[in-house]
Design a protein that fits this description.
By secondary structure, the chain is an alpha/beta fold. The protein has a single domain (3-250), classed as Nucleoside phosphorylase domain (Rossmann fold, 3-Layer(aba) Sandwich). It is built from 7 helices and 9 strands; from the N terminus they run E-H-E-E-E-H-E-E-H-E-H-E-H-E-H-H. Strands 5-8-7-6-9 form a 5-stranded mixed β-barrel, surrounded by 5 helices. Helix 2 (72-81) crosses helix 5.
């Protein structure tokens, strides 16, 4: 594999810097244009391939675009314009399961997205993409093996519930999502997965458990969630994510 596009967000704003710190790498800033807006791309050229990193929360100023205001079509279009062999979504999530405590990276295999807003590149003529298997099993297995080796554990088969934010969920909403089959909850993967399914590009989901979901903190069900702590926890997982990306570039299973 020679080209990977990475969509990342909370805690990952410096992810391209982590990749660039490896030996024999160079980087450059690109800008992808589309009818949905411009998207900055950090292109990292490594010894065995190229990685195109997009911060999904990018904005022209110093602020970061909140999850409900992200123009996902611009981001996925920018990623696909890099002609990648694989697209990787790195998402911060709240965990509902004991096997994926904060600080752990898991692999997504399914989506539970019941949000009302449609996301598609096809507004003029109906196009119905298949989402039976939303994430590529072969490339996901590479990440499982890498996480098992580097992290000591690799939660897989994770079902991600999509909520729109920007508020964190309530404990009762988490209870309902868990009954529907979700294991973790996030605010950005749902639209990305829908749009990527229309491109035909293989997709992998790296899930960074940044906090316990509301009401799920062991021994402290009333524990509050604050974004600063979530962001800090997610940033601690940048190096582990980079291990997965490098393994995917090598393509060894």
């Amino acid at each position: 594999m020679n080209r990977i596009a990475v969509l990342c967000g909370t805690g990952m704003s410096a992810f391209s810097t982590v990749l660039s710190s490896s030996e024999e790498t160079t980087s450059e800033l690109l800008v992808a244009e589309s009818k949905w807006g411009e998207v900055p791309i950090n292109a990292v050229i490594m010894a065995n391939g190229e990685v195109f990193v997009i911060d999904r929360h990018h904005s022209p100023g110093d602020t970061r675009t909140p999850p409900h205001a992200i123009e996902h079509r611009a981001n996925v279009h920018a990623a696909s314009s890099c002609m990648p062999d694989l697209l990787v979504s790195v998402n911060s999530v709240g965990s509902m399961i004991e096997t994926m405590p904060p600080g752990t990276i898991g692999i997504g295999s399914g989506m539970l997205d019941l949000s009302e807003k449609p996301w598609t590149f096809h507004d003029e003529d109906a196009f119905h993409s298949d989402r039976t298997n939303p994430f590529d099993e072969l490339y996901s297995e590479i990440c499982v093996q890498t996480l098992t080796d580097k992290q000591g554990t690799a939660p897989s088969g994770i079902v991600v519930a999509q909520c729109i934010g920007p508020q964190f969920e309530s404990p009762h909403e988490i209870d309902a999502l868990e009954r529907l089959g979700a294991n973790v909850v996030g605010m950005t993967l749902g639209p990305e997965q829908r749009l990527v399914s229309e491109t035909g590009i293989p997709h992998v989901s790296l899930l960074c458990s940044s906090n316990w979901a509301a009401g799920r903190t062991p021994g402290e069900p009333d524990a509050e969630i604050d974004h600063e702590s979530v962001d800090s926890m997610a940033s601690n997982m940048r190096e582990m994510v980079s291990h997965c990306i490098i393994s995917l570039l090598s393509g060894d299973v």
